[in-house]
Amino acid sequence: MFNNLSEKLDKALHVLKGHGSITEINVAETLKEVRRALLDADVNYKIAKDFTNSVKEKALGQNVLTTLQPGQLMVKIVKDELTELMGGDAEGINLSTTPSVILMSGLQGSGKTTFSGKLAQYLKTKKSKKPMLVACDVYRPAAIDQLHIVGEQVAAEVYSDIGNNDPVAIAKAGIAEAKSKGCDVVIVDTAGRLAVDQEMMTEIANIHKAVTPQETLFVVDAMTGQDAVNTAKAFNDILNFDGVILTKLDGDTRGGAAISIKSVVNKPIKFIGTGEKMEAIDVFYPARMADRILGMGDVVSLVERAQEQFDEQEARKIQKKIAKNQFGFDDFLSQIQQIKKMGNIKDLMGMIPGMGKMMKDVDIDDDAFKHIEAIIHSMTPKERSNPSIINTSRKQRIGTGSGTSVQEVNKLMKQFNQMSKMMKMMQGGKGRNMMQMMKNMPR
User: Measuring CA to CA, which of 14, 304, 386, 409 is 20 to 30 A from 286?
Assistant: First the structure.
């Protein structure tokens, strides 16, 4: 996410880091490079220019030239300005009525239908809501099928009326159906086009007028850069939408849309999509995103994801096993499953300060644990619960059964033993209250 932009901003600010002598000339030179980095990320020229002018004004206003650590102060000013440019504070979603109607808009291919499913999942798990998805794309039967598939994946009700070519009537009938089934949120998935056209705008304006949604959200593919911002403006002129959803932020995105869309349409980015899984949805926090763009990581989001997967009962069970030297490969496997639920591994690594830069050329896919899982699944139940019995002949059998090698089995055994020792050490001393600390960390 934003690797290219992060790298260029880091280079631009590098000259000001440390205790070196800083002048108005090298501040200007640095900000020229910052502006170039923003333009390369497909940020609108006027926005990039206004941004660097504002940073310069604040830097000189705070007398950055004579401070003890001017480089660090400059990074802070850039971070604060980036945060403000992307919206300042996180914006919630309006669910004030029952049922609350959420209208999804956007071009075809922006990820609108998939994100409707992700939003349903988010509202179910985080807001304890009972959502219904309504299929109002009357042009593509595949879109209706897709909505049913994502609805099934997140266990949400789906309303569709195949053969009915009136999206306004379908939307109204869907809301009525939601009321009869006790659903408290209705997510209306509308038709997209390959480009903005009058017919499309008229249709979605009619749906908007008929259902009076509490939230109208514009879904945009972050990888389209400045085009995304222009499309957002066209939709906002017609719909006056409430917020933006940026999808495909896990792809090779330049970041221009995330940075400049708020400034152009004056509407907040509310959610971002960070992967293909239904759980890959995050509330957009401008300050956290600014941290990540500047290579500072995002520890708060990392802790929140860990807490979501933290199972106190499971933790107590494992704690007892460690105390009795009974921690086995089944327990190890269960820990891996919890990590996988937290999201894309490379994305998680990027949340650790300094790791984003180290990981930029490292390719870690979602199946990073598949070899480990294959090795563990090739062990017998007895071997998994009592790893000390795994001798050379057993390792050969496990390697063959898992499609790996004895060397890889040895490597896993070594990692497992190291982890077991570390966990044993953490049972006493400083680690004794770690579980309690995790529980009590601010959410």
Answer: 14
- Which among 228, 226, 167 has a CA at the least distance from the CA of 195? 228
CA atoms within 13 A on the CB side of 24: 6
Task: Return the number of other C-beta atoms located less than 10 Å from residue 362's C-beta.
Answer: 9
Strands (E), 114-177: 131-136, 157-159
Fold topology of 100-294: Rossmann fold (3.40.50)
Q: What is the DSSP letter of 91?
A: -
> Could you check whether the bond before residue 442 is cis, i.e. omega within 30 degrees of 0?
no
Q: Give per-residue pLDDT as tens, 326-378.
A: 778 887 887 777 766 666 665 665 555 555 554 455 555 556 678 888 898 89
Contacts 24+ apart (CB under 8 A), 299-308: 299/351, 299/352, 299/353, 301/351, 302/348, 302/351, 302/352, 303/441, 304/443, 305/342, 305/343, 305/348, 306/342, 306/438, 307/438, 307/441, 307/443, 308/342
Question: What DSSP line would sit under 269-292, residue for residue?
Answer: EEEEE-SSSTT-EEE--HHHHHHH
Q: Do domains 100-294 and 302-440 have the same CATH topology?
A: no
CATH topology of domain 3-85: Four Helix Bundle (Hemerythrin (Met), subunit A) (1.20.120)
pTM exceeds 0.70 for this model: no
pLDDT of residue 3: 60
Helix (H, G, I), strand (E, B) or coil at 33: helix
Q: Which CATH class is domain 302-440?
A: mainly alpha
